Structure formats: C-alpha cells, structure tokens
Amino acid sequence: MSNKERLENNTKLSGGNKKNLFYKKITSLTKKAHEVSTLCDVQLKIVIFSPDKVILWPTESQAKERFENYLSFLRTKGFPI
C-alpha cells in the first residue's frame, strides 16, 4: 500500500478511530525515541500538541530539563535567544 493510499484511508476514519490511531502512533514514536536515546546515548525530548492536550516525553520534568540544557547550549555557542 502506498503512502497516498494510507493517507486517503486515514481521512475516512471516524473520530474515535482517528484518536486511537493517533495514540498508537505516539506510542510507536516514543518507543523509537527511547531506543535512539539508549543506543546513541543522547537526550531526546518529544513535544506533541494535540487538540486536547500537550504530550511530553519522557516526563514533564525531564522534558523541561532537556529544554533548559538546550537553551544553555545555545547561549554558550553565542546564538541569540
């Protein structure tokens, strides 16, 4: 099945099915992020804006800490923030 066919099939889904598909994709994405983070020894953060809430991975406090680390890295390199 091509990407275009998959996209067309996804547009035909009902509201509940779209939500289930959305959360399945988030689960898959966070699993992949965990694998990359572990295998490559890097800190990753995922921020997803859904219609009803903001989803942060791995946790809210860890995501904030990683964002602050990123901002401090930019400051040390001389990027304007």
Automatic annotation (TrEMBL):
One Pfam family named in its UniProt record: SRF-TF
The record lists the lineage as: Eukaryota, Viridiplantae, Streptophyta, Embryophyta, Tracheophyta
Q: Which residues does UniProt call coiled coil?
A: none
Tell me where in this chain the MADS-box domain is found: 2-50
Question: Where is this protein found?
Answer: Nucleus
In which organism is this protein found? Answer: Solanum commersonii (Commerson's wild potato)
Q: What is its main location?
A: nucleus
InterPro entries in alphabetical order: TF_MADSbox (IPR002100), TF_MADSbox_sf (IPR036879)
Question: Keyword set for this entry?
Answer: DNA-binding, Nucleus, Transcription, Transcription regulation
Gene Ontology CC terms: nucleus
Q: What is this protein called?
A: MADS-box domain-containing protein
Q: Where is the signal peptide?
A: none
- Tagged with keyword Nucleus: yes
**MF terms (GO), sorted A to Z:** DNA binding; protein dimerization activity
